[in-house]
């Protein structure tokens, strides 16, 4: 005979034979069991109440049925909650097991790291590194000393350079001052000569004079060209003519200036040789004055002066050439030598064609 399966009431934990479930003395709700012990009381209470009341209405019986259903629902909910708690506990246990495994693996890795660190930090293991660090420190110390020495040396050189630049700056300022002073003198001289233009223009013009050799020099061999005899010139002009051969550049400059201011056309053959004077300021003054003498030899001298070595002289000769001939051919005193020569040839070609018609 097969052994009967025994269950337990989930309400009072009393054993429930399997046959009670077959006969209906016990019932199964999902996976929960309510035994006859509790089921009889529930059913009996409802039957006794029906017999004692006799005349009670059917609504009372309905109330007991509703209470029974509610009790069964409460029991089912309790059983369901217990099942959910069990499931969550199982999941939590699984998660905790996984966490324990992870902690175990991490612990093993930490132990491995500790062992490697212990081997690395053992006695003598860091000696090579310490030796290398000491070597680097020594090298850095030498580099630091060299850098400090270099910085000090550069500071000294910069200080010396600053001193030198200061001296250059002082010299430059002095040169600028001298240049400004010279410019002022030149401007004053130009204004003074300009004031004499009207007076000289009103003076009678001398006829064409013989060409004087501008390259001839006096017997003493200084920078002043040989001069013709100062005949027929009154004093003090004859004295200034004699002064044209003085060794001093300033004396010759003064003599040319005085002769030009006199407005006497007879001084022309005496100042023309100084167109080749050694001093550029004397030459510039001569070319400034030649514009007042309507003579072909003056034009020759001015065209030749366009090739002078000094820019100031070339500039003055070009201005006087335009004033004397009333003609203008472009000439740039500050252009390159080749370009200046080309423009000078254009002046010479024009003059060769118009020499006989100008004066």
Please explain how this structure is put together:
It contains 11 helices and 4 strands; from the N terminus they run ββαββαααααααααα. It is mainly alpha-helical and 359 residues long. The strands form 2 sheets. Strands 1-2 form a two-stranded antiparallel sheet. The longest helix is centred in the middle third of the chain and has 76 residues, at 127-202. The radius of gyration is 67 Å and the shape is rod-shaped. 19% of the residues are buried.
Structural class: mainly alpha
Strand segment tally: 4
Helix content: 55-70%
Look up the CATH topology of the largest domain.
Answer: Leucine-rich Repeat Variant
CATH architecture of the largest domain: Alpha Horseshoe
What descriptors fit this protein?
two-stranded antiparallel ribbon; rod-shaped; Leucine-rich Repeat Variant; 359 residues; 4 strands; 3 domains; 11 helices; two-stranded antiparallel sheet; mainly alpha
């Amino acid at each position: 005979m097969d052994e009967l399966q025994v269950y337990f009431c989930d309400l009072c934990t009393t054993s429930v034979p399997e046959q009670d479930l077959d006969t209906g003395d016990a019932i199964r709700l999902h996976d929960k069991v309510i035994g006859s012990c509790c089921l009889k009381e529930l059913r009996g209470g409802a039957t006794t109440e029906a017999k004692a009341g006799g005349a009670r209405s059917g609504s009372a019986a309905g109330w007991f049925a509703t209470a029974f259903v509610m009790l069964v629902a409460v029991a089912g909910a309790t059983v369901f909650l217990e099942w959910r708690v069990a499931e969550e506990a199982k999941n939590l246990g699984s998660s905790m097991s996984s966490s324990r495994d992870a902690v175990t693996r991490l612990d093993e890795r930490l132990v491995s790291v500790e062992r490697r660190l212990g081997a690395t930090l053992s006695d003598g293991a860091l000696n090579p590194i310490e030796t290398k660090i000491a070597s680097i420190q020594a090298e850095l110390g030498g580099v630091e000393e060299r850098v400090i020495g270099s910085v000090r040396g550069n500071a000294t050189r910069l200080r010396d350079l600053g001193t030198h630049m200061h001296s250059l700056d002082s010299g430059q300022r002095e040169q600028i001052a001298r240049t400004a002073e010279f410019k002022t003198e030149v401007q004053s001289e130009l204004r003074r000569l300009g004031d004499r233009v009207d007076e000289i223009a009103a003076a009678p013009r001398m006829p064409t004079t013989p060409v004087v050799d501008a390259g001839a020099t006096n017997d003493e061999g200084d920078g002043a060209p040989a001069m013709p005899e100062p005949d027929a010139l009154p004093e003090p002009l004859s004295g200034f003519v004699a002064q044209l051969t003085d060794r001093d550049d300033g004396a010759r400059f003064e003599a040319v200036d005085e002769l030009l201011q006199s407005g006497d056309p007879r001084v022309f053959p005496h100042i023309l040789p100084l167109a080749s004077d050694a001093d550029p300021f004397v030459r510039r003054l001569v070319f400034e004055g030649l514009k007042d003498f309507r003579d072909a030899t003056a034009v020759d001298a001015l065209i030749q002066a366009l090739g002078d070595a000094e820019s100031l002289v070339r500039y003055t000769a070009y201005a006087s050439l335009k004033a004397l001939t009333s003609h203008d051919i472009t000439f740039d005193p500050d252009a390159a030598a080749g370009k200046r020569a080309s423009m000078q040839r254009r002046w010479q070609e024009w003059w060769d064609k118009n020499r006989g018609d100008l004066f």
